[in-house]
Amino acid sequence: MLEQVEQYRPHVVAALTNAASQGLTVKELCGALGAGEQAIRRCLAALMLAGVVRESARYTPGARGAVPRAYSLAARAA
């Protein structure tokens, strides 16, 4: 499992760097990286624990159903 997290970590960080300020959902990351959902979720969990990634809700007006969680890079203190 650790090898899988280390394999996807640089790709997830690069994808989130290129993302808009709204961030990306797990589904969008899976599509962009061509990886499985479980691998992306494990990697995001490790990055959240390290304080590299933050999670927020992405509300879309007019959309029905659950509000998806979007992930973006956490702001670094200077």
Q: What do these coordinates show?
A:
It is a single chain. This protein has helices spanning 2-18, 26-33, 37-49; strands at residues 53-57, 69-73. It is α+β, with helices and mostly antiparallel strands and 78 residues long. The model has no long low-confidence stretch (mean pLDDT 85). The chain has a two-stranded antiparallel sheet with strand order 1-2.
- With helices defined by DSSP (H or I, 4 residues minimum), what is the helix count? 3
- Gap from first CA to last CA: 33 Å
Helix content: 40-55%
Find the count of extended strands (DSSP E, 2+ residues): 2
Derived structural class: alpha+beta
**Major sheet details:** 2 strands, antiparallel
> What's the pLDDT, averaged over the residues?
85
Keywords:
alpha+beta; 3 helices; 2 strands
Task: Summarize this structure briefly.
The protein is an alpha+beta fold and 78 residues long. It is built from three helices and two strands; from the N terminus they run H-H-H-E-E. The longest helix is centred in the N-terminal third of the chain and has 17 residues, at 2-18.
List the helices and strands and how they pair.
Blueprint: H1 2-18, H2 26-33, H3 37-49, E1 53-57, E2 69-73
Helix pairs in contact: 1-3
